[in-house]
Amino acid sequence: MTANDDRAGERAMAVENLRKFLDAEIEPAFRSHGERFIPKETMGEWTRALGEFGLTRAPFAERWGGFDMGWLAQLMLFEEVVYTSLDVAIPGFINAVGAKLIETLGTDEMKERYLADVIAGRSFVSFGISEPDVGSDVAAVRTRAVRDGDHWVLNGEKTWITNGEYSDFFICTCRTGENEISHILIDRHEHGYEVRGIPKMALNGQSTAQIFLSDVRVPLANTVGALGKGLVNTLKLFELARCHMAIWGVGIARRALDESIRYSKERKQHGKVIAGHQLIAEKIATMATHVEAARLLTHAAIAKVESGARADKECAMAKWYGTEMAVKVCRDAVEIHGGNGVTKEFVVERLARESIINPIPDGTTEIQKLLIARALTGVQAFR
Ligand SMILES: Cc1cc2nc3c(=O)[nH]c(=O)nc-3n(C[C@H](O)[C@H](O)[C@H](O)COP(=O)(O)OP(=O)(O)OC[C@H]3O[C@@H](n4cnc5c(N)ncnc54)[C@H](O)[C@@H]3O)c2cc1C
């Protein structure tokens, strides 16, 4: 047995244990709750329980309550939770990526104060770039932090902020000078900010919100990373976030595939189960192959991220492919279910709505393609 075999065995075991817990506890709880907003207390309880199985804890050092298993393990565990419920999976994803930002760039005081709690799911983090007029063009951020003695005074509006309503603290990407973008940590309980939820076509169980900053005073010591490095640091963090977005696609597509396999073996038309019709068989074979390909692409991307090498091209490929293949696979799953596929009685209806959201956050498909082409040609085609 090599060390690599040990790590693979450890990951497989973690996935198996989590799967049992999800099937026994989270699947029925989510089913009976439905797609209504999950209150912070319940989401906290579920996120902490999932954390005990490795979600959020897997990639972090033991001194912060982590399991030291790496980001591949985190993605494998994330896939399992997405398979059961994307609403339940998302807060843990944001906590893991937010914790990575603090672990890499935060001061010792920030780490002591926030890291263990956010990794365990005892608190929630949000991070925000997007604003009403700032989407794909992240460098256009307008939210401003102006220095006043030993404090920043922040004003602006952020939108589409995942975990917003749950958040105990918020890592805000803002302008600290005319040509200077930085990250500032705002503690909701200490410094305050106003939050308003955004209703969506799906994923209303978890929180996507607007955050309003009106003369919010925050100590200069809450600057995360070097001043003026906010954009570079955000782009680096996107690599990790995009791998999660890709696995979000893999998780829901795998569920759509399993639901389709089950249904196609039960439903009979023209004298036999529909799985026995060649065009349905072709759909299932194609769906399964796309799911496997997206997972392999993402696992290769995360291996490159973990090696420390620049991985923007690989993560963009994984994000584009994983999220778009899920739209296609979930649509095929609805087709396989026929009329039943558009009813609330069948899971594929929800999956199809969730899949459509998937390509948008952390850079749309168009933006991923521009990133891939720029990496290949050295020529940027953004503007
Ligand atoms: C569910 C959800 C959760 C989110 N969570 C967060 C979060 O936690 N934090 C956060 O900061 N943001 C978050 N976002 C925001 C997300 O990152 C943005 O929505 C995304 O980057 C796109 O920006 P936009 O919506 O303003 O679209 P726009 O940038 O206005 O784009 C509109 C269309 O134009 C296309 N387009 C734009 N520029 C170009 C170009 N140069 N070439 C070709 N096509 C182009 C886009 O691809 C898109 O099709 C979230 C969004 C959603 C839907």
Question: N- to C-terminal separation?
Answer: 52 Å
The overall pLDDT, averaged over residues, is: 97
Strand count, sense and closure of the main sheet? Answer: 4 strands, mixed
**List of distinct ligands in this structure:** flavin-adenine dinucleotide
Please give the radius of gyration in angstroms. 21 Å
> What is the general shape?
globular
Give the amount of beta strand, in percent: 15-25%
Order of strands, main sheet, comes to 1-4-5-8
Give me the count of strands: 10
Structural class label: alpha+beta
Q: Helix count?
A: 10
SSE order in H/E notation?
HHHHHEEEEEEEEHEEHHHH
The residue fraction in helices comes out at 40-55%
Low-confidence spans = none
Describe this structure in words.
- There is one protein chain.
- By secondary structure, the chain is of the alpha+beta class.
- It has helices at residues 3-33, 40-52, 71-84, 86-105, 108-120, 230-266, 278-307, 312-336, 347-357, 365-377; strands spanning 125-128, 144-148, 151-162, 169-177, 180-187, 194-197, 208-219, 223-224, 268-269, 272-273.
- The strands form 3 sheets. It has a 4-stranded mixed β-sheet with strand order 1-4-5-8, covered by helices on one side. A 4-stranded antiparallel β-sheet has the order 2-3-7-6, covered by helices on one side.
- Helix 8 (312-336) runs antiparallel to helix 9.
- The model has no long low-confidence stretch (mean pLDDT 97).
- It binds flavin-adenine dinucleotide (FAD).
- Flavin-adenine dinucleotide binds at residues 127-130, 135-136, 160-162, 208, 357, 360-364, 366-367, 382.
